[in-house]
Amino acid sequence: MTRFVKSPKDVATGLLLIVTAAFFAWQGADLPMGRAIKMGPGYFPMVLAGLLAFFGLIVLVGGLTSGAAQGEPINVRRWPWRALILVSVAVTVFGVGIRPFGLGPAMGLAVFISSLASHRFTFGSGVAMALVMVAFSWAVFIKGLGLPLPMLGPWLGGY
Amino acid sequence: MEIFDNLALGFSVAFSFQNLIYCFIGVLLGTLIGVLPGLGPVPTIAMLLPITFGLPPVAALIMLAGIYYGAQYGGSTTAILINLPGESSSVVTAIDGYQMARQGRAGAALATAALGSFFAGSVATFLLAVFAPPLSDLALKFGPPEYFALMVLGLVASVALASGSVIKALAMVVLGILLGLSGQDVYTGTPRFTFDILELADGIEFVALAMGVFGIGEIIRNLEDEHSRTVMVQKVKGLLLSKDDIKRIIGPVVRGTFLGSFLGILPGGGAVLSSFAAYSIEKRISRYPARFGKGAIEGVAAPESANNAGAQTSFIPMLTLGIPSNPVMALMIGALIIQGIVPGPNVVSEQPDLFWGIVASMWIGNFMLVVLNLPLIGVWVRLLTVPYHILFPLIVGFCCIGVYSVNNNEFSVYTMALFGFIGYVLVKLDCEPAPLLLGFIIGPMLEEYLRRAMLISRGDPTVFFTRPISATMLGLAVFALAVVLLPSVRRKREEAFKE
Questions:
Q1: Does the keyword Transferase apply (chain A) (predicted)?
Q2: Helix, strand or coil for residue B51?
């Protein structure tokens, strides 16, 4: 199998592109196509999905046959999963928290959680950065730029 | 002498107290964030975009343009001092610049970069002033087929001039266009690719996409090799250039400026290609090519002038045609649209104060960069030593509030998180995200002009080839694609991008 697949990276890319193209084609299948003279909303996306699948196929075939240049494997295990998950969670927490809890808590939590993604994380520095950023966003975004955001949201007694 | 009247108008706008301040803040913030390792112009602009929303359009654009050259300039500083180019256009600067720094000539390298950039910026600004109005007059004669052809050419050129696999870059463009089609169909209002999510009715938020891919994705990538990121910076001294230095840089600066100015106008060319090209030309014509790579001052002067000139002239297609030639210009277009201005050939004639104000502010911004940067270099050097584990949580915080405040919508924040992941995966698969962003911005326009052109021609696709301008542009696009796909050129191209 490994000898058959010359460049795992390209094979994965090709497959991913084809799946994406199929997804767009499937989602766009219900849209009216129209005719060349009066294209419907589905015409252009369908052409593009076909094009994307075509490019995906070229990359896939290239990865199976040649691909000497980039023959390195995609080492999913060595991906920075900790950073990927923690940074995404931090951003999501900000989104969930901003309305009910307000800018201060949402910002503090987001900064603290993302600081956990570093190998050099210490509790003290995480808290310190969170506090600095909360103070900074209060001064710049609320006082300075006047963004219409409460520091404390309705769930914490703000407005 | 209409051009002088225009420039006078521009300077009168740009020299207003308010605009000078915004230009200054932009240049300062741009440098500040651009100096931080791992943050190039795109994430810098994306992060700071929201703070310009409350400003009047002219001030907002002046500030964003200032952020742009500030960030680019900051990228050269990191390239020279710690061999860590903030963005791809400083990659070549790092080769000789870092060697100079190791030989204790960091000051001379920084001064060369600053002066070369200033000269290039001044010339390119003048060229912009000369060529933009006739170009926009020409563009006003464009019909839908010409616009369509131009955009295709732009997208193809951006692919052809990018590094890496051509097919993957093409796929990224197409994927970008598909993502850009999400939302309502322009003619019928039919929702497309919205997955019945209310927030997607107007399409995917552009700032969220850009910041996810270039901000969050970049952070995750930097955390990958966290252990190898240690920064050592020496003291910088000797900012004055010797007579011999000056003699050696004049040629490279002038050549770099003109090369950069020309390549910058090309869609997709911009700063990156011009710095690579300028470096290799200097190396080829130099009497002492062996010096290059070992701290040749020409190797700093040429690419720095070229990339600044290219950065400046890449505003030409954006301002006159409404077509972005690189991701930074795509962000600028995003900013214009948020300000309620539809970029295109009409901007020059209908909003002369906006157009000429921006042009004039570019010159002022470049001047400020020189004045601001050389004396303050000590401050920037200190910034370089901020460890990444302190930096990145703050950047995450800025990205969050920036994206959220675009339209007070938490959905944009989730979109950013998703595209952070997607951006990381794409980079891991050697797919460049820049063409995706260009496709995303151009996609809806491309579709609209295609549909209009087909309506006019009554469904006859030959319309694109029977009209001379459109046929020429499509011919060029096909030619460019054919050239980069030729095996022999492909090998050369790979070599060229391997420094």
A1: no
A2: helix
Please state, as a whole number, how many other Cβ atoms lie within 10 Å of the Cβ of residue B240. Answer: 10
Give pLDDT tens digits for A111-153: 999 999 888 888 988 999 999 999 988 888 888 777 778 888 7
**Parent domain of B58:** 1-497
Structure tokens at B426: 């794409």
Q: Each residue of B265-312: pLDDT tens digit? A: 776 655 667 888 888 888 888 888 888 888 888 888 898 899 888 888
Q: How many domains does chain B have?
A: 1
- Compute CA distances B428 → A12, A74, B91, B224, B260, whole Å: 11, 8, 20, 11, 30
Residue-wise pLDDT for A14-69, tens only, equals 999 999 999 999 988 888 888 877 888 888 999 999 999 999 999 998 888 875 55
Tokens of B57: 């359009």
Task: Name the nearest CA neighbour of B367 among B37, B11, B32, B91.
Answer: B11
Phi and psi angles of residue B223, each rounded to the nearest 5 degrees, phi first: -75, -15
Contacts of A135 in chain B (CB under 8 A): none
Residue B488 CB-density burial (10 A; 0-12 exposed, 13-18 middle, 19+ buried): exposed
For residue B180, how far is the Cα from the chain centroid? 20
**ipTM over the 0.95 cut-off:** no
Q: Is B401:A103 a contact under the CB 8 Å cutoff?
A: yes
Residue ranges of chain B with per-residue pLDDT less than 50: 499
Question: Is there a contact between B274 and B304 (Cβ–Cβ < 8 Å)?
Answer: no
Q: Is the dihedral of CA B245, B249, B250, B253 positive or negative?
A: negative
| pTM given for the model | 0.85
Q: Which residues contact B187 (CB under 8 A, 6 or more apart)?
A: A41, B451
Q: Which residue of A has its CA nearest to B388?
A: A118
Interface of B with A in 8-67 (CB under 8 A): 51, 54
- Residue contacts between A and B (CB atoms, under 8 Å): 191
Helix (H, G, I), strand (E, B), or coil: what is residue A39? strand
Query: Which of B54, B177, B401 lies at the smallest CB-CB distance from A107?
Result: B401
Q: What is the pLDDT of residue B281?
A: 85
Q: Do A145 and B226 touch (CB under 8 A)?
A: no
